[in-house]
Every structure is written in structure tokens, then in C-alpha cells.
From TrEMBL:
It comes from Slackia equolifaciens. Pfam families: HATPase_c (PF02518), HisKA (PF00512). Residues 98-326 form the Histidine kinase domain. This is histidine kinase. PANTHER family: SENSOR HISTIDINE KINASE TRCS (PTHR45436:SF5), SENSOR HISTIDINE KINASE YKOH (PTHR45436). GO terms for molecular function: phosphorelay sensor kinase activity.
């Protein structure tokens, strides 16, 4: 009656149907993508404002999945950075508290000593107390100087050189600043270094590290005791060994003695201990403070290693090894 539909009309109808189907699929796809982006936006908002981790549970392919993975990486990195900053903040707070304790104790002792000196009518007693006061001031100066050196090492501001020199000269440079302290503490320092022993590294800073270890050993050695310094060289490394005749290091302290401001299991004190601090307590502390931490930092900066043990015959032993660059 109407005749058959023309081919052109059929093609047009087919094209229209195809277009409608494509449009419908595009709308569905766009809606799904919009929903995915909305969910991702909500999760990012939760990460930023609620501290939740971004959970990547969608493993499908596609642009949104790629975006989700990249955002997840960024969020994970930001979370790690936030954790590191929080840890640094806690470490800084602890460090400030430790610095305060380290400096406050000798300052409090010095403050208590001043009125004693003022009231004393005995010239000898006054002279003795003045020497003790001078020693307390020297200790505070040493603490501040050590803290500044550690800060310079942490900041990479110390320039180390490497030169071949006599190990005996390095040891002598480490011992000389402590000669008076050894006499005052009635501790003998023995040096056993062969003249031909050579050391390759920064002599000045190595002497500084050895001096800090020597000081620690001296402070933990009873009157009449001995601190021994030895150096040897072979084809592989130059080795320094410092040992003392003290009571040794408690097993609980061995893993921690190079930690900054570590006081030791026998050296923990209450925050009010400084008010009753006397000369012996301050000048021969039970803890390990910052000296060993500084020594380790200086040794490690030169590619060396330092290890603490208890000697078989008793007392503490520190082995410091500087490998040779060429064998």
C-alpha cells in the first residue's frame, strides 16, 4: 500500500539508532566516571580532614583508575612525610629536654657552690672550691661545644680531609687535652702505639673522636684505675682500641650507649636530682651523655666503625676501625 521503505530512510533510521545507542552509552559511561571521581573526591576529603588512609581497592583499568593510583601514591607520601615530621618534632622535644638536663645539672651545682665559697674563711677550702667551680664551668663549655659540633655534623657543615699521618700523633692529640683531668681523677692513661703505625684520614677530627671515648672511659674508671689506648695497622685497616679498668658496661646499656643523650640504666636521674648535685656526681656522671654519640658520628663520617664491648678481663672496650681505601 505504502510501498517499501527507501534505502536512504533505512540508513537514516539505522544511523539514528546507532547515535542514540552511542549517546546512551556515553551518558552511562560519563555517569559512572562521574560517580568514580565523586567517590575519589570524597575519599581524598576524608584523607585530608579525617586522617584516614586512602584505600586502593579498585583494580580496574582506565583513566580514573590510573588517577586513583597516582593520588594514592601522593597521599601515602604525604602521610609518610607527616609521620616523619611528627617523629622529628618528638625527637626535638626530647633533645631539648635532654640538653636542658645536661646543662642544668652542672649549672645548679655551680650555683650551690658560690655561697659556700663566699662563706668559707679557709683559704685552702676556698681555692679547692674555686677549682671545682672552674671544672664545672669547663664541663658546661664542653657540653655546649659538643652540641654545636653534633649540629654541624648533622648539617653536613664539617669538611673532612684524608691524609696519611702517624697514628701515635693522632693518639697524643687525643690524650693531651685530658691530661689534667686524668691527674685530677687519679686515673692513669697508657699509650701503646708503634711509631711506624700509620693512619689515613682526618687526623684532627679523629683525635676529637678518640678524645671523647677516652673522656668517657676516664669518667667511668675508679681512682687508681687505668685507661689504655692502642693502635695497630694491617693491610686492611688502621685500628684503635681504648679500654679501661672500670666496672664495664651493663648489658642493658650496650645496644644504646652511642645514642645521643643516653644516660644509662644506672645513670637515670629524676628531674630534681640537679638540686642536690655535688662535684663528684657532676664531674663523674653515670650516663654516657653526648660524647660517644659525637665520637660515632665523626668515625662514621670517615667510613669507619666503632663498637663497644666488655673486655674479657673486665672493663669497657671500644674498637675503632678505619678501613683502607686501597689494599
Amino acid at each position: 500500500m505504502y510501498g517499501s521503505l527507501s534505502p536512504a530512510l533505512l540508513v537514516g533510521a539505522s544511523s539514528l539508532a546507532t547515535g542514540l545507542a552511542a549517546t546512551l552509552l556515553f551518558c552511562i559511561f560519563s555517569y559512572q566516571r562521574y560517580e568514580e571521581i565523586s567517590r575519589l573526591s570524597a575519599e581524598i576529603d576524608a584523607v585530608l580532614h579525617e586522617g584516614r588512609p586512602l584505600i586502593i581497592s579498585d583494580y580496574r583499568e582506565g583513566d580514573v583508575a590510573v588517577l586513583r593510583n597516582e593520588v594514592g601514591k601522593v597521599c601515602a607520601r604525604l602521610s609518610k612525610t607527616a609521620e616523619d615530621l611528627a617523629a622529628e618534632k618528638r625527637a626535638l622535644a626530647n633533645a631539648l629536654a635532654d640538653i636542658s638536663h645536661q646543662i642544668r645539672t652542672p649549672l645548679t651545682a655551680a650555683e650551690l657552690m658560690v655561697p659556700v665559697i663566699e662563706r668559707s674563711s679557709d683559704a685552702r677550702e676556698r681555692a679547692k672550691k674555686l677549682r671545682e667551680l672552674e671544672s664545672l664551668i669547663d664541663r658546661v663549655s664542653w657540653l655546649v661545644t659538643s652540641l654545636l659540633k653534633i649540629a654541624r655534623i648533622d648539617a653536613g657543615a664539617i669538611k673532612l680531609t684524608s691524609q696519611v699521618t702517624s697514628a701515635a700523633d693522632v693518639v697524643r692529640a687525643a690524650v693531651e687535652p685530658l691530661a689534667v683531668a686524668f691527674d685530677l681523677n687519679d686515673v692513669t692513661c697508657e699509650i701503646r702505639v708503634a711509631p711506624e703505625t700509620r693512619f689515613a684520614g682526618d687526623a684532627a677530627w679523629t683525635a676529637e673522636s678518640l678524645s671523647n671515648v677516652l673522656k668517657n672511659c676516664m669518667e667511668h674508671t675508679p681512682a687508681g684505675g687505668t685507661v689504655r689506648v692502642e693502635a695497630s695497622e694491617d693491610a686492611v685497616a688502621c685500628r684503635f682500641c681504648i679500654s679501661d679498668s672500670g666496672p664495664g658496661i651493663a648489658q642493658a646499656d650496650l645496644p644504646h650507649i652511642f645514642e645521643r643523650f643516653y644516660r644509662g640504666s644506672a645513670g637515670t636521674e629524676s628531674d630534681d636530682a640537679g638540686t642536690a648535685a655535688d662535684y663528684e656526681t657532676v664531674m663523674r656522671p653515670k650516663g654516657f651523655g653526648i660524647g660517644l654519640s659525637l665520637a660515632q658520628a665523626l668515625v662514621n663520617a670517615q667510613g669507619g666503625s666503632i663498637r663497644a664491648t666488655n673486655a674479657a678481663h673486665g672493663g669497657a672496650r671500644f674498637d675503632i676501625v678505619f678501613p683502607k681505601l686501597t689494599v
